[in-house]
Amino acid sequence: MFHPNILCMGRGSLENTEKLIGQIEPERILMVTGPNVRKLGIADRVLTAAGSYRNRVELFINPKPEPDISIVEQCARHIREGGYDLVIGLGGGSPLDVAKGAAVVATHDGEMRPLLGMNRLQRKGIPTILIPTTAGSGTDVTRAVVVSVPEDKSKRSIWDHRTMAEAVIVDPELMVHMPPGLTAETGFDALVHAIEGHTARGANPFSRMYTAEAVRLIGAYIARACRNGRDMEAREAMARGATYAGIGMTNSGLGAIHALALGVDSCEGFNHCRSLSVLAPWVMRFNRIGNESLYADIAEALGEKIEGISVEEASLKASQCVVRICREIGISIYLKDCGISKDKVRSLAVGAYTVGQRLLPMNCRDVSQEDALALFEQAFGG
Ligand SMILES: [Fe+2]
To answer: Which of 46, 125, 127, 152 is surrounded by the fewest CB atoms within 10 Å?
Structure first.
């Protein structure tokens, strides 16, 4: 099992920042964050929590979401030239991916492309402390760094245990700023990590312990967190759910929802959540065949009563629950709502199937190109 060395979780866990930095004893610290996190005063809260190390911290602002290779390489150059020996990643998935990616690119040759793929790293990176401000990507606890590749408008990743953080601080008090839309989108991403992690071919009893609890927490609290961002019980549950989903998926792998979404994420009218939500119900129904008991587990974790009904019937309820959750949090499950016309569905499906080959082998059921096309046709909506 892969897991960060130290994981501090819960309200007020940011107070551990100075102590955690002290264990690494850095001379120069680079904090990688986003413009919004800085504007909202969250970066200042972390600087305060850094205590006696505050004066050793400098900021690197990741300018936009969905980071590409060039921003990671630019940050890595900054780390090398500045002699930084600790990187703090603070924010949503994007600045955390930049922080993780730059920390390993900085100890290699400064180029990211040769490191993309499975286990290509030669050595550890600069130590990192990761502090998420959203409950979604789970990148703070995974061994993956995801980036956009401008050449083919796809996403690729470094997948290596050496990208894992030295320490992670998951403090839900840093997440209250999230508006309902962002809470819904990041939370839904985490729910899909948990569902796909639970059913992936690489799942094991240990990873399923995390993914089952993540499904339960997110299913029970996502709508509450969207309705009232100051509901701290819901924020805390979502923070835990996203972290458990991340730990689960990094040890199990994902599946066809994320695989096919890879080629859709960067298309106009989409983002990561939108591409997941239009695929999730249909892929779950497809994957259910041959994996009924796992989907029955998911339905139960999402609050369905499954006693006294057949496993097959129970398994069907999993995708129905996801459709209900999408409605409750205001996310569409249809491609037609994302500006896609019917005549574009085939090319979108073929492109997604080609790009998705990297993750499709992790899915619990084989997916052919015809299957992918049928899934996209269902996703278009009637
Ligand atoms: Fe995701």
So the answer is: 152
For residue 246, the CA-to-ligand 1 centroid distance in Å is 9
Distance 23 CA to ligand 1 centre (A): 31
Evaluate whether 198 touches 363 at the Cβ level (below 8 Å).
Answer: no
Q: How far apart are CA 346 and CA 372, in angstroms?
A: 9
* C-alpha–C-alpha distance, residues 224 and 167, integer Å: 29
22 CA from centroid of ligand 1 (Å): 32
Burial status of residue 308 (CB atoms within 10 A of its CB: 0-12, 13-18, 19 or more): exposed
Amino acid symbol at 293:
S
CA distance linking residue 195 with residue 140, whole number of Å: 19
Helix locations, 107-167, DSSP H: none
CA distances from 92 to 36, 62, 170, 206, 261 (A): 10, 11, 12, 26, 19
212 Cβ contact list (under 8 Å, min separation 6): 194, 198, 297, 301
| All domains in the chain, ordered by first residue | 6-174 (3.40.50.1970), 186-380 (1.20.1090.10)
Q: How far apart are the CA of 134 and the centre of ligand 1, in A?
A: 13
Please give the average pLDDT of every successive group of 10 residues along the chain, which has 382 residues. 94 98 97 95 98 97 88 97 98 96 96 95 97 96 92 85 97 97 97 98 97 98 97 98 98 96 82 93 97 97 96 97 97 90 92 92 97 96 77
Cα 204–Cα 140–Cα 219 angle in degrees, nearest 5: 60
